[in-house]
Amino acid sequence: MSVPAFAELLERLLFTPGRNGKVALIRQWFATQPDPDRGIGLAALAGELNFRTAKPALLRELIATRTDPVLFAMSYDYVGDLAETIALLWPEDARSNAPPPGLAEVVRTLDGAGRGEVPAIIAAWLDALDSGARLALIKLVTGGLRVGASARLAKVALAEWAGQEVGEIEEVWHGVRPPYLPLFAWLEGKGPRPDPAGQPIFRPLMLAHPLEAKDFEALHAPDWRAEWKWDGIRVQLTAGPGGRRLWSRSGEDISGSFPEIIAAMDFHAVADGELLVVRDGEVAPFADLQQRLNRKTVTAKMLKEFPAAVRLYDLLFEGEDDLRPLPFDARRARLEAWHERARPPLTSLSPLIGFGSMQELAAIRDGARAAAIEGLMLKRGDSPYTPGRVKGPWWKWKRDPLTLDCVLMYAQRGHGKRSSFYSDFTFGVWRGDELVPVGKAYSGYTDEELVWLDKWIRDHTTARFGPVREVERHLVLEVAFDAAQRSTRHKSGYALRFPRIARIRRDKPAAEADRVEAVEAIVAGSLAG
Amino acid sequence: MPPHPETWLRVTEAGLYCEPGGFFVDPTRPVDRAIITHGHSDHARPGHAHVLATPETLAIMRERMGEDRAGTTQQALGYGEALTVNGVRVWLRPAGHVLGSAQVCLEWQGSRAVVSGDYKRRHDPTCPPFEPERCDVFVTEATFALPVFRHPPAAQEIGRLLASLALFPDRTHVIGCYALGKAQRLIALLREAGWDAPIPIHGALQRLCTLYETLGVPLGPLVPATVATKDKLAGTIVLAPPSAIADRWARRLNDPVPCLASGWMRVRQRAKQGGVELPMVISDHADWPELLETCTEVEASEVWITHGREEALIHALGQQGIRGRALHLVGRGEEDAE
């Protein structure tokens, strides 16, 4: 029953907004599905399923042989999605009694089939399935599977189901392949831990907690090392005889998007650092790095316009030597010595910042205004590299956020638990007599403030567009954010980074809210800094 | 040769009018004489002088619009009973849509038309099944008249709901459904699937559920959802109007899974609107195969389509040698378009 069961899983994932709900659904998949289908399902969720897919045109030809063209056109026009139209329209008068195919069977059969055989094979499967399962099958065989879950979520669900740490799964993940039989055997206590030897594998990162005032007071300056907190993305560089990989913080392989970094990794080590766009030694704003993310192919133009580089701050392995148990100071010394010797191109060390007292460090943090710097990282000199978010040894100490007083313009209902609340807010600043949107925020407020905002919005609605309400231009919101940059996303010509609602300014008249010139000044100031 | 029904059954601004009989079927504005197919508000409107319908439909109309607005005089006609109005023979056949729903069968000088109202051919424990009546002109709805609409068996959808409840045993599963017909059918289907627990219902469903029970449709224990506390609603199946399931009313529920029971749930884009987490394809309207099968079964040479997606149905009927005609009746499909 595995394609129908997989179809039900996909359907529920698509409609379930909450993380916990999704995890529960995926866990149930691991618990109830047999091998090798559950592993094929895992691969599909994790985006690691590779097999010979069929072209959508083939499905179109198949449905044309079975339906009236006028009715097909009307249906496609109504439904809008080709795969869904075909799945819903596929005639059931020839419904066969053949058992529905298994997921592994689909993958295996298509990989082994001759080109001319594929249409008949797919048609026979469609005849054996109901509409929901037909849709899943069509998406699967055309490679158009969009799953409402990430690879990370699939691994979290796997870990919860097996009672393992997700870090443990990450450690072995890149040494196993679909349908992951040794992985499941190990997780069920029926086999040894899969050995990732030789394969480049992702080592779960050590993460920091945000530093709060009460934590700050307990810090003793000599115990601590400080680095800039760069506004890029955290990456792990793994290179050795088994290959080279660039991993994102969640263990996603992003090597394909950064071929120049991979080419530069002519070493045998595992390093931790920040991926940035750097021009002439200057770190560019995050928006530039965004141009490079999530790209399957990278053009020469992209490489030239948005040159990537890595600021390194930790060394996890040197050769086969696991440095993670060593204290930070010892790893830093190894990192500096190794970097001096290996000198890999496109890398530089993130400098340690000298300071005599915590007060001095606080002043350094307050003085940092460059857009590429979010604040400071504090790391205990004696801290080993511990995967996950352990509280105490590492802190991230972001500089105080910037703020603007903005006017609420539109509100949209949230999802899941917030589906009855107007919880997503679009706000603007003045340009002349006109309000222009500058951002959207859906966090920062307390539960009580959300209840108040929801009521205010319902009472002050001037127009509705589906789930969106336009409201009277009366309410001022103090919006906190990390940086401002030029952007075409909003009419103001600017976008804010991580905007959140800091306060509701019921006291402030809308006319006294900030103007677009204030945003301009922030952008100009951070570029200069 | 009997007269063609278009000579004695006409579309007027107030709806379908039987000229020799002097009465309307499901008129959209107050008239002197009206025959009503069923109690949904886009078919049964208030303010007519004389109303003829099944006893159940009359009771539903009185409940929904009050004694004084449900017709100055009300005349009940049971299924299969016939009477003659100014020479037009009138009788009612079950339509299988909701309790009391009827097809209005009319015969004038040997020429026969059946106005089916809304109907379905599926199992429904709350009302008698549709009975096909041979006729010259069959008047049909076309709400789901596209071949993409094929409703799965309702029991299968109830099974998906119960499977979800097994997976999320603490979450309230709240089903959005219309107060007349869908709500009671869902309750009856749940009972058939073995769900014996008391079913909390939104206040807007209470009166019609009580009326159904009075009219002999057992629904099992129902309790008001409104007064219960959150922990008491954990693990329950709650019924409410569609507008309530993702709005403020639903905040009283325990981490709810919003479900919606409707034929529209068949298409994802439709289902994705409105925050539904468990779309259930359960409809009280005929799906595409049922529409075609019914039009063929009644042997009509002509099919008139009141509202819905008439183009596709006219096209498909034409291929079978049946003439289709769109009536474009206004004001239909408002309530029970689902």
H and E order of chain B: EEEEEHEEEEEEHEHEHEEEHEHEHE
| CATH homologous superfamily descriptor of the largest domain in chain B | Ribonuclease Z/Hydroxyacylglutathione hydrolase-like
Q: Look at the structure and give the mean pLDDT of chain A.
A: 91
**Helix-residue proportion of chain A:** 25-40%
Round the mean pLDDT of chain B to the nearest integer and report it: 93
CATH topology of the largest domain in chain B: Metallo-beta-lactamase, Chain A
Find the structural class of chain A using helix and strand composition.
Answer: alpha+beta
Oligomeric state as shown:
heterodimer
In CATH, the architecture of the largest domain in chain B is: 4-Layer Sandwich
- Percent in strands of chain A: 15-25%
Largest interface: A-B, 33 and 35 residues
Find the count of extended strands of chain A (DSSP E, 2+ residues). 21
- CATH fold-level name of the domain at 209-398 in chain A: D-amino Acid Aminotransferase, Chain A, domain 1
What's the level 1 CATH class of the largest domain in chain B? Alpha Beta
Largest sheet of chain A: 7 strands, mixed
Instruction: Show unreliable segments of chain B.
Output: none
Approximate shape of chain B: globular
How many individual β-strands of chain B? 19
Per CATH, the superfamily of the domain at 209-398 in chain A is DNA ligase/mRNA capping enzyme
CATH class of the domain at 209-398 in chain A: Alpha Beta
Distance between the termini of chain B: 41 Å
